[in-house]
Amino acid sequence: MPENSAPLPPVADLLGLLAYAELVAFDQMAADARLAPDLSRRAALSEMAAREIDAYCRLAERLRELGVEAEEAMRPYVGALRDYHDQTEPKDWLEALAKAYVGDGVADDFYREIAAFLEPKDRDLVLDVLHDSRHADFAAEELRAAIAADPKVANRLSMWARRLVGEALSQAQRVAAERTALAELIASGGGDVSDVQGLFKRLTTAHTARMAAVGLNN
Amino acid sequence: MPENSAPLPPVADLLGLLAYAELVAFDQMAADARLAPDLSRRAALSEMAAREIDAYCRLAERLRELGVEAEEAMRPYVGALRDYHDQTEPKDWLEALAKAYVGDGVADDFYREIAAFLEPKDRDLVLDVLHDSRHADFAAEELRAAIAADPKVANRLSMWARRLVGEALSQAQRVAAERTALAELIASGGGDVSDVQGLFKRLTTAHTARMAAVGLNN
């Protein structure tokens, strides 16, 4: 079955994307936890990974309510998300944290924007399952401490962050080309398609501020 | 610091072993989830992995109540559990399930026996965080179906299970030689040390029954 064959209701399309993103984030964080320099940091990241699965379960449950199997709703996104993660495998603990901080930051901002077009029930669910700030705070603190201890780290991680964003944009374009339901969702929800530029600008501004907050440069 | 330098209260010694076992089981199940043949099985195993972290958090919390850092209590077991998992890396989905089914089965039986020597509060905690039967049932069902579809699979997995048990016993002996606190726990709790043979017999009987239940032979 080709990846984009199943026509889903627009909201299921978004929930499927989010559900698969949670499943993959779980997987990635669980693997990253192995890179932790000690047991308490490893436990901290493992705990955060477990929260992704809780979020996954809630999204899968909502999809079932909508009469859609989670597997069916997630399938269109498998290729793009797998390729993103394959292309951006962290080599060490700091790269793993920078990826979580930068990548999840942009993704969460994006989902938050899209959630505004949903019915209240689904909007609240999406806003609720997005990463709590605990994860970003933990990553930011580790990154700041590492850069303070060795300022050269900032250059290496800034380059890494630019690669992450480039790879994410490339996969996002692929998804946008293959899936029109998300675009429909924005249109049907009263979203102004001409505001895509505005959306892009807001995401970029927030990303730049996030980078600066830990001492990385764009 | 040598692995066995810190003298801990006996109960912290057991809780530390269990906590680290949960952290490692999380890690292993999260990695095994990648071997799943489809997204729904992958999600099922990821969910089970997340439950291990919930258990870890409860054990770490109890250790803190006892005035012991989880990291300190876990440290003595890092070498043995890491070596066990390094020596028994599953090559495919069925090996991963057989490892979870056989290995967690024996380990849970062992913890359940030791829990009998604890004060009620800790005993209830340990019994509560042991794997619920959902995980074993899932693994058993998958193994039975695979053996029904191809009886030759039973031979390969039976050999694999024997290797798992051999490797686990070898690491258990290592832990027993390095850590006397668990032995003290049994003695102080009124446990009859001469019953170690009885314990061993009960574990072996339960293991044999578990193997037979899915069509594997000892």
TrEMBL record, chains A, B:
Positions of the Ferritin-like domain: 11-188
InterPro entries (UniProt xref): Ferritin-like (IPR012347), Ferritin-like_SF (IPR009078), Ferritin_actino (IPR059125)
Pfam families: MiaE_2 (PF13794)
Gene3D superfamilies (UniProt xref): 1.20.1260.10
Protein name, UniProt field: Ferritin-like domain-containing protein
Organism of this sequence: Planosporangium mesophilum
